[in-house]
Amino acid sequence: MNDDKAPPRRPNAFGPALFGGIIGSALTAALLFFAMPAVLSSKIVRQGLLADPKILTETVEALRDAQYEPVLAANRAAIETPFASSWKGAAKPEVTLVEFFDYACPYCKASNPAVDRLLQEDKGLRVVYRELPILGPDSVTAARLSLQASKVGRFAKFHDTLWATGRPAPDTNTQAAQAAGIAPEPVPDAEIETELARNMKLAGELGATGTPLFVVGNKVMNGAVGYDMLKDAVAKAKSKS
């Protein structure tokens, strides 16, 4: 006997599969939509840095400037006001460049021609010299003698003579002291000790890793940065003054 009943219909898998495919594609597209900007941005940044590495340097410098801006704002007068005659250049400056230095520091000596050139070219510039003797007892002695010469108005004579004579040592310190017309050995002076302690504190707050340390405007520069960078920093500080 024939069975006239129709066989049971198999479920159609095509519809759900199609629907699932559509949903999956939509999710993938959504993920790409939200993720692509970040991917593209990182690639653009990477390509930019590879094309011009100065971008990274300038970013680091900007962050450094922002970090020390509050310190500079709170200590501007202490940083830029010279001790006695420890300065060169304009009596009424348009801009002040400060150098924390050690007479025994070769990088400070290497920076002298750049600083002197700036002083010759820019008659509105004052350079304030802050003693930071960190390279041994002879450096400390030289700094004390330099400040004693500064108190009697002869800083430049001591400063220039010692740099021309050589590293701080008993004989070179004596020669510079004689040229400045002061005693060859430091005499106890509370004002000088206060100045040295203040300079050490300020340099530490400004992130000094050694000497020289230059400050102009809101720019802090550690090391022998050279004429071009100093000139650029002076120009920017002058434009904002």
- End-to-end separation in angstroms reads 111 Å
* Low-pLDDT ranges: 13-19
Overall morphology:
elongated
Query: Strand share of the residues?
Result: 5-15%
Q: Can you summarize the main beta sheet?
A: 5 strands, mixed
Tally of alpha and pi helices: 8
Question: What is the multimeric organization of the chains shown?
Answer: single chain
Enumerate the strands of the largest sheet in spatial order, edge to edge or round the barrel.
Answer: 1-3-2-4-5
Structural category is alpha+beta
Mean pLDDT: 86
Total number of strands: 5
In short:
By secondary structure, the chain is of the alpha+beta class. It has eight helices and five strands; from the N terminus they run H-H-E-E-H-E-H-H-H-H-E-E-H.
Question: Can you describe this structure?
Answer:
With 241 residues, the chain is α+β, with helices and mostly antiparallel strands. The chain is 61% helix and 10% strand. It contains eight helices and five strands. The chain has helices at residues 14-51, 54-80, 106-121, 137-151, 155-165, 170-180, 190-205, 227-240; strands spanning 87-89, 95-101, 125-131, 213-216, 219-222. Strands 1-3-2-4-5 form a five-stranded mixed β-sheet, with helices on both faces. A hairpin with a 2-residue loop joins strand 4 (213-216) and strand 5. Helix 3 packs across helix 8, helix 4 packs antiparallel against helix 5 (155-165) and helix 5 packs antiparallel against helix 6. The termini are far apart. The model is unreliable at 13-19 (pLDDT under 50).
